[in-house]
Amino acid sequence: GRTSDITMNDAMVYFTMDELKSKVVPIVFRSDIKTQRQYGVYGIPTIDPASVTIYGPGEIIDTVRSVRTKLVSKANVSEDFSESVGLDMLDGKIRSNTKEVRVTVEVEKFTEMDIEVPIRVSDSLRVRFFPETMSVKCLVAMKDYASIVADDFTVAVDKQQLKALQPLLDVRLVSWPQSVQVLSTQPDKVEYLIVQ
Description:
Structural class: mainly beta
Distance between the termini: 100 Å
Largest sheet: 5 strands, antiparallel
Strand content: over 45%
Mean pLDDT: 90
Radius of gyration: 27 Å
Oligomer: single chain
Low-confidence stretches: none
Shape: elongated
Helix content: 10-25%
Number of helices: 3
């Protein structure tokens, strides 16, 4: 009859509970955000909470490195937004007491900026480059525009080529502010003169 069914199910539930493992994993925000022209996502979206405790059968839990949010898809965005997003629990293979997280995305107006970055070599060698600067075209948030300076960027030449005294050296942008999106750089090779 029906009563035995219920006890059997209970026994099965307890049996699987024994095999459960738990661990804390980071949450990964899945997004497809298209902003209006001249706008862009600023910085890295925040996720609250940023990690989650998951439970499930050991062999599944051992393979899980992170939990992804459901996809947040938006078009034509021009301002910050914050919303609750569900988590992808692998079709019920894993569980968590945290059912959703709050995701906050900052959106700023961006503008193009051209900046001339001096080309330097850190060695004691006195080298003059032609041209002496690299032109960097980048997108920068309006609110950061005034604070971005050439010193925030680093341009380096290929030292091996310099040692080998090759006539042209490869030159590249090696570091720039996190809030800046680099669109293009010029030139990619420079001439030089070693000053005695």
